[in-house]
Design a protein that fits this description.
CATH class: Mainly Beta
Radius of gyration: 14 Å
Number of domains: 1
Length: about 120
C-alpha cells in the first residue's frame, strides 16, 4: 500500500527548511514538486532545493528549470537515499541564488512501508 506525504505552501523569500517525521519505516517511490504561481527558469536569480530522497530541484535553465503554475514536476530519486527509518525526516531545504525567486511550493513524497 502506498501513501502520499505532503508539505504544502512552503513560502520562501530566502532560506527555508521544513520537515515532517516519517510515520513508519518507508521507501520513497516518487517525489514531485509544484508551485502555485510557477517558477521561471533563470540562471542568475533562482531557487535551489535539497529534498530528501532526490537529487534536488534547481530552477536554473541548465538544471530542472521552470515550474509551470499548478503542474507537478517529478524529481530524480537519489540511489541509496530512498529508505527512511520510522521517525526519520522527510525534509526540504530551499535557498535563493542571486536575487532569488520567491516561491510557494508543495512537495509530495509517495511512500510505501519498507520491509
Amino acid at each position: 500500500m502506498r501513501f502520499p506525504i505532503v508539505i504544502q505552501n512552503v513560502t520562501t523569500d530566502g532560506v527555508m527548511v521544513c520537515s515532517v517525521p516519517a510515520p513508519f519505516a518507508c521507501r520513497i517511490i516518487s517525489v514531485r514538486v509544484m508551485d502555485a504561481a510557477g517558477v521561471a527558469a533563470n540562471d542568475t536569480n533562482y531557487v535551489d532545493a535539497d529534498i530528501t530522497g532526490t537529487t534536488g530541484y534547481d530552477s536554473r535553465a541548465a538544471n530542472q528549470g521552470a515550474l509551470t503554475a499548478g503542474t507537478a514536476l517529478s524529481l530524480t530519486l537519489s540511489p541509496g537515499a530512498t529508505v527512511i527509518p520510522a521517525g526519520g525526516e522527510l525534509k526540504a531545504s530551499f535557498a535563493k541564488g542571486g536575487s532569488g525567486q520567491a516561491c510557494k511550493m508543495g512537495i509530495i513524497w509517495l511512500v510505501e512501508p519498507a520491509n
